[in-house]
Amino acid sequence: MRSARDDDRQVRPTEEDEVAAAGSELIGGPAGRRALPGAGWWTPVRVIVLVAIGMFALGMVQKLPCYEYGWFFGATTQYTHACYSDIPHLYSGRGFDAGLIPYFDRIPQALSGGMDYLEYPVLTGLFMQIAAWLTPGGGTIQHREQLNWLVNAGMLMACTAVIALCSARTHRRRPWDALLIALAPAFALTATVNWDLFAVALTAAAMLMWSRGRPALAGVLIGLAAAAKLYPLLLLGPLFVLCLRAGRMRAFAVGTASAVAAWLVVNLPVMLTHDAAGFHIREGWAKFYTFSQERPIDFGSIWLLISQRTGNPLEDANTYVSLLMILGCLALVALGLYAPRRPRFAQLAFLVVALFILTNKVYSPQYVLWLIPLAVLARPKWRDFLIWQACEVLYFLGIWSYLAYTGSGDKHQGLPTEGYQLAIALHLLGTLYLCAVVVRDVLMPERDVVRRDGSDDPSGGVLDGAPDVIALGSAHRPRYAERSGVTSVRWGSGSRP
């Protein structure tokens, strides 16, 4: 039997991960047995937040060539230096500099190049509007775009701190796992490409609240995150499967109702317009959803790879995407119900978001931000995480080099089509590899790093330690605890025999 002191002891990556132990030699080697965890001001959470902010700042420095001239004076410079960002372009291109109100004011074609309304969800539009209000006026448009990027970068840095803080506190005994988020190279490179970190921060906060057994607040945060980016809604699928298996459907119902209510509170004021004939859906609000449905296959997707290799434009891509998502979700339901031990929430959450990314019509480089916190909670193994990150960094460099090649005319400065197709394949294979090891952990729970100490589901909240009510595939299989010699499992913040 483990003592309460053993249960409360923080897990150090250098004690269980050979790659982390080897990497720690750069700062003096692994912590000794007598090291006091969290002693003094330098607690794990504070260290991780500071490292995350430092890496974010390095990512800002990487954008310096574009900040100085690349966004304004050279169409391909922002690609050859891999420092592109949507932020300065959309500040003027979506009418923020001109004082237009998102979703209400139509954007003149001379500004937007054909996009008549802002193509982002409501909370992201609000985030952009607040940054525009905080941007000082005067000077040239280039100067205002620079200032707007700095304002947005400051707000996104705050989101980074929230992500690091929430992820470090989600698994109580494993705060140091979040150091992977802070040090992730793809995180630093893509943090200021777009506004995705806002939705990622809300999702990380939702994961923390669920882990603390607060489904209503977790649902509110999921609803708000979905009002900033659509993907957080996918987390309700794993929660349904896991709550069904554990007989915790009341918690799921509370979380889902809270998510729907929060989403409606944010969206309804913008969504509906009224005239003499009654209420109607506002065209500006609907732009995000119609644009997502109508857009053709685009950069980074498996569909673009297939289209370029076969010459088939794949005009029915929406149908293919829908079918693969349905089949993939059914497979995840089966995995959640038939696994020998109930999967952890973070594992299924990572898999369903990865499925969405792998089957989507487009893969923008910043989409990797959606997966990084979930990947760390699902599979906190440094080797696997770094393999995946290497693939994502290569894709990040590949897409900008490809755009430089296609935009440089006869110079052909950059990566040709075949090279870009290889970059897409690396991104797909890297993500599939990480999915494969997570699925292996689900099917072979003794391989799960998080559960080696007898923990059940540290991010599961009401699911943590709950007995199965429905376990379709485990009736004739020995319990994991019995196979591994574990005599107690984690129940919330304590333990029960």
What is the N-to-C order of secondary-structure elements (H for helix, E for strand)?
HHHHHHHHHHHHHHHHEEHHHHHHHHEE
- The share of residues in helices is 55-70%
End-to-end span in angstroms?
A: 8 Å
The value of Rg in angstroms is 23 Å
Q: In the residues, how many domains can be counted?
A: 1
Largest sheet: 2 strands, antiparallel
Shape: globular
Strand order in space, largest sheet: 1-2
Total number of strands: 4
Q: Write down the overall mean pLDDT.
A: 88
What structural category arises from helix and sheet content?
Answer: mainly alpha
Identify low-pLDDT runs. Answer: 1-7, 475-497
Strand content: under 5%
Task: Work out the helix count.
Answer: 24
Summarize the SSE layout with pairings.
Elements: H1 4-8, H2 13-16, H3 18-23, H4 44-62, H5 64-73, H6 77-80, H7 86-93, H8 109-112, H9 122-134, H10 141-170, H11 179-183, H12 185-190, H13 196-211, H14 215-226, H15 236-246, H16 249-271, E1 272-275, E2 278-281, H17 283-294, H18 302-310, H19 317-338, H20 345-359, H21 368-378, H22 382-407, H23 417-443, H24 480-484, E3 489-491, E4 494-496
Helix pairs in contact: 4-10, 7-10, 9-10, 10-13, 13-14, 13-21, 14-16, 15-16, 15-19, 15-20, 19-20, 20-21, 20-23, 22-23
